[in-house]
Amino acid sequence: MIRPSILVVALGLQAATAAAQTTTPAPAPAQPAPSTPATAKPGTTLEKFEARREKAFMRADTDGDGKVSLAEWTAFQTERKAKGDPAKSFARMDANKDGFVDKSELDAFLAKRFARLDKNGDGALGVDERPGHKTAPNQEQ
Q: What is the model's pTM?
């Protein structure tokens, strides 16, 4: 004869086993939806900032030698009706003081400028940090 307490325990184990076999497994954690790459940032990145300004700057290279002289820069700034003294802005860019600004000097200058404009240090210029925006720092472009 089976004791009632053993019978209760046996039936309880059998019921638990049956329940475990019929229980639906927990769903796997949801995978995050694909999004933009981690390197993409809203706003203007340094690469975009440099590319735009290099394109504009190299229009001043009228002789096509890959660098801009003070004379070319002055003519370009005059044509654009730019504010300020072209010789001063040229001197800031001409790091090695050889009388020409090449791509490496321009990139270095633009990287410094980008860092000054990127007030929150997130690696991208938001609308309010871009030159020309009413809340942007008042700096010569």
A: 0.57
For residue range 10-55, list pLDDT tens digits in order. Answer: 445 455 555 555 555 555 555 544 443 444 456 778 788 788 888 8
Q: Residue 127: helix, strand or coil by DSSP?
A: helix
Per-residue model confidence as pLDDT tens digits over 59-117 = 999 999 999 999 999 999 999 999 999 999 999 999 999 999 998 998 899 889 888 88
Distance of alpha carbon 136 from alpha carbon 126, whole angstroms:
10
Please give the backbone phi and psi of residue 44, each rounded to the nearest 5 degrees, phi first. -90, 120
Q: What is the largest CA-CA distance in the chain?
A: 113
Mapped onto helix, strand or coil, the DSSP state of residue 67 is strand
Element (H, E) at 125: strand 124-125
Residue 53 in tokens: 């300004």
Cα separation, 141 vs 87, in Å, equals 14
Q: Which residue is it, tokens 């090695």?
A: 96
Residue with tokens 């860019």, as numbered in its chain: 93
